[in-house]
Amino acid sequence: ALGQLYGENNMYLEGIQEFQAALRLQPGYRTARLALINTYNTIRDYTSALKESEPLVKAVSNDVDLPFGLK
């Protein structure tokens, strides 16, 4: 939630830090990982977005909803 607020206020680096903190506490937290990927895409850090996408894709490779979460 805090990471999202930072993003809404164009404070992307702070948002990234919050999403990373959430993922350190709960690595399987899909919503935080998707938000982190979207934030990286927003700031055009595609290398980091791809890096964060790989474990998600591996974990949910059979999940038909995955493409819809990666906006």
Q: Can you put this structure into words, describing what you see?
A:
The mean pLDDT is 87. The protein is globular, with a radius of gyration of 11 Å. It has five helices and no strands. With 71 residues, it is mainly α. α1 (2-8) packs antiparallel against α2, α2 packs antiparallel against α3 and α3 (30-42) runs antiparallel to α4. The longest helix has 14 residues, at 12-25. It has helices at 2-8, 12-25, 30-42, 46-59, 66-69.
Residue share in β-strands: under 5%
The residue fraction in helices comes out at: over 70%
Unreliable parts: none
The first-to-last residue Cα distance is 18 Å
Question: Kindly state the mean pLDDT as a whole number?
Answer: 87
Shape: globular
Structural class designation: mainly alpha
How do the strands and helices of this protein lay out in sequence?
Layout: H1 2-8, H2 12-25, H3 30-42, H4 46-59, H5 66-69
Helix pairs in contact: 1-2, 2-3, 3-4
Please name the defining characteristics of this protein.
71 residues; mainly alpha; globular
Brief overview:
The protein has 71 residues and is an all-alpha fold.
